[in-house]
Amino acid sequence: MKPLILITILLPLALAGILTVDLKTTHQTWEGVGVSQAFGTSSHIKNLPSALQSQILDLLFSSTGANFNIIRNLLPSASWVTIEPTSPGSPSATATYSWDNSSWNQVWLTNEAVKRG
């Protein structure tokens, strides 16, 4: 996350006395900051003109943008989009999986994010 964004969020809380910032003490470290593309978000970006797609993806995932480095994907469980469209009937029965190699364009968006670092 860019320092300016972090300051914009935290400074008003500190000034209001809601948040105390002690720069001498480390309570935890961050591995990264991410986004969720669950519930069809990636399809919205995929359906845009390619120039706009590229601009949005750069803003989200490149080092000149927000530089998000964690993506939450969803393996949907709704009957019309699940990877297991037919219930096996019991926990001990053999499941039958069906994968479309896209999952609402989540695979595409993840690959585009990886290209940007």
Describe this structure in words.
This protein has 117 residues and is mainly alpha-helical. Helices cover 35% and strands 5% of the residues. The chain has a two-stranded parallel ribbon with strand order 1-2. The longest helix is centred in the N-terminal third of the chain and has 13 residues.
Percentage of residues in helical conformation: 25-40%
* Radius of gyration using CA atoms only: 20 Å
Q: Termini distance? A: 14 Å
Helix/strand-derived class?
Answer: mainly alpha
Output the strand order for the largest sheet.
1-2
User: Can you give the mean pLDDT?
Assistant: 85
Q: How do the SSEs run, as a string of H and E? A: HEHHEH
Give a count of the beta strands, DSSP E runs of length 2 or more: 2
Short description:
The chain is mainly alpha-helical and 117 residues long.
